[in-house]
Every structure is written in C-alpha cells, then in structure tokens.
Amino acid sequence: MSTFEQLGLSPETLQAIYKLGFEEPTPIQEKAIPLALSGADIIGQAPTGTGKTAAFGLPIIERMVPGSDDIQGLVVVPTRELAIQVAEELNKIGEYKRVHTLPIYGGQDMMRQIKLLKKRPQIVVGTPGRLMDHMRRRTIRLQNISIVVLDEADEMLNMGFIDDIKYILGDIPGERQTLLFSASISKAVETISNQFMKNPSLIQATPRNNTVPSTEQHYIEVPERKKFDILCNLLDLHSPEAAIIFGRTKKRVDELNEALSRRGYSTGAIHGDLSQAQRNAVMSQFRSGSIDILVATDVAARGLDIEGVSHVYNFDIPQDPESYVHRIGRTGRAGRKGVAFTFITHRELEHLRIIENLTKRKIIRHPIPTLTDALAGQQQVTVERMLKTIEEPAISAYKSMAESLLEHHDSVTLLAAALKLLTKEPNTDPVQITEDHYAPPRAKKQRAKAPERRQRRPRPRKAHR
Fold this sequence. Notes:
single chain, seven-stranded parallel sheet
C-alpha cells in the first residue's frame, strides 16, 4: 500500500489531504493518481464509494495554474447533487493551492451562475444540459481546458446524454487529458473512449468481498452528538476483554482516547502522527492486557496481528469498502467469534448499503443501547466474576468475616451490597467530541432522483444530392 507522499503530490495538496483526515489512498486512488499525474488518459472502473472523486480530484488540482483567468479543468457529472458534492470536495482539496471550483447545474438561477463565472474559477463541475446552455451563451469557453473528467460515465450515458457528451467534448481542444470513471464499461462508454481518448489506460479497483464469516456485523443509526454516549453504553454492556475502536481521523482518535480515559476506560491510541516507538509501546500494553481498548485510525491498525480481539467498533463509517473489510477483519480470527458494530448517521445509510452490496454481507440493524442495558451488562459481569471467585482457594480467608456479617444482616442484603460495590456503573459525565465532517458518497439510486433535464441539439440536416 502506497502513501499519499509516494504518489507525487505537492506539499500544498498533501496539506489539504491531511486536514481532511485521510492517511492513505484507496486502491483506485493508488492506481489512478500516478498515471493521471503523468498526463495519461485513463478509464477507471470502480464502484461508487471507493474514493473515485479524490482519484481524479487530486490530479486535476495538481494540473491547475492558480491565478489564471481561464477555466482549465472540467468535470462532467450526471446530476446536480453530484455536481455540488464533487465541487465541495475539490474546493477542500484545492484550498492551499488556491484553486477554486464552481458547480454548474440546472435548476439554479442562470444569471447567478454567470455572475459566479466572472470570478474566474479554475475548474467547473457541471451537468451536460446546463454546460451546453452556457456554451451557447458563450458564458463558458472551453478553449483552454487542459484536463476533462467524465464522472459516473455509465450512468450519464444510460440517462441519454451521449449526444450531449459528444457535443461538449467536441468543443474542447484535442490536446487535453481525458479521465473517464465508470462503475461498468458499457458499449456507450467504449464508444466515447474510442472517439475522444488517446490510448487510455484501463485501471480497475474492485474491493474484496470476503468478510470474516465468524464475525457478526451490526450497525446502529445514531445522531452524531450521541455517538460517544452510545459507545460507552455498548462498552459497558459488552465489557470486552480486548476491543478496537476505529476513528476516521487522527484528531478524532485523540479526542476519543482522551474522552474514554476520562470516563474510566483503559485505553490507548495509535495513529500516523505517533513515532514507531510510541506505537510499539501502546501495542505492547494492548497485547499484555494492560489496556483493554485500542483506539486507532485505519493506517495505524493496518497489518496488526492481535489475538483475542472480541469486538470492533467503527465510531465513524469508513470511507470505502476496503477499509471496512480491513477493520472488521481484526476480530473473529482463528475460528473464534467476533462482533463488529458500525455507527452511522441517517445521511450515511446509503453508504452503508454500498458496503453491503460490495461485501455481499448483510449488516444487521441493532437497537440503541440504553443506560439500563449498560447497567445490566455490568451487573452480569460482576455476577460472573463473583461466581468465578467462589472456585478460588483463597476465598476461605474471608469466610469468618462473612459469617460475622450474617449475624447482623440477611444474606440477600449483603450480596446486593457486594454486587453494587463491584459493579461499574455507567458514567454520564458530559464529554464533547468534535463532529468529524464527512460527506459520504451518494448511491446512484439517490443521485438519480434529480437528473439534469437533457436538452437535445438540433440534428444537422443532410444535404440533398
């Protein structure tokens, strides 16, 4: 697995990536970015939810010349929702290179778009119909485009945009780089690539679909602000001997580790900012049982071979199915049973379905555990500890004390008091965890709800012989 530093990206772009919290590229990013940076035309075949936007977004940002008055990059997408989503991500990636991206789509006031175009964005993300409107009005000129991207090409062509795509590409200089990303390679996609691309390289990134069969997989739909309290309830309910909690970013992991420690849990954190010596120290504590819970990012936990991890908690849903498979693979090893819980917000439901489709496994909805559930879990743990202690020879030293207490109190009251003292009751002290802003990839079904209305060009009349 490569790192972003090894892909040839500029320091400014790397700074933006790490601000977003991503530590390592997804498979499609790892394959596409070096080729795209070399100037090659690319056909990228990868499903939705595998990091395709950054796969073409990082190279297109690198190709831009800040301060230029011309539109240098064009991304064509099938729907207005996707136009907004892609533009938002490109603006985040281009923050430190001062590259501005503008979304153009139908349903938005044309005069407002014209006004925004006068601010000279370097990149335009647009739907076919609205792009052609601007081209006819000459409010968008494409003669200085150096790189063009067709995103979700199969969906766009299935919606009947093939003539529109030909019209748009036909107005862009031939000396350009073309990147095409599609979940499938249909005949229409092949037609476009044969006509408008120069010796394109085909790259494919199909996520693994073999999740650990002995691992139960659950998800809990919960508002962002309640995630931490629900996590604590789960930990109290399950009382895992060894668990891993995954956070999406390094900041998230540090905050979770500190907050859990304040609540009384035995935790340690590992992420990319720690030295190898620091990571080794934390891992040594985890393996020896000195700490029960490891809080980690994906990159820090990659390759960990730890026996006895019974539970994995995805505090943040991973950005791609590969990461999900990797995470839950930390438990359910060597034929043992494992359990994985993934926290999602309502807007992440579609992304969860993408993971289900690509891993070919159903993730079961789990009810939100309450404080009552957590307390019952801790009480059960206490009972099990007491029953185990009964078998220990050293207990005889305490029998005379027990007999003395029974002279003044009934046995049920004494046992209840012992259970109360030994039970770790749930801590409800308020803890603030910063919301980890993340827009999950939208599923095709969701994006297709508001397609750009296709506008057909008048067909040229055939000359009579």
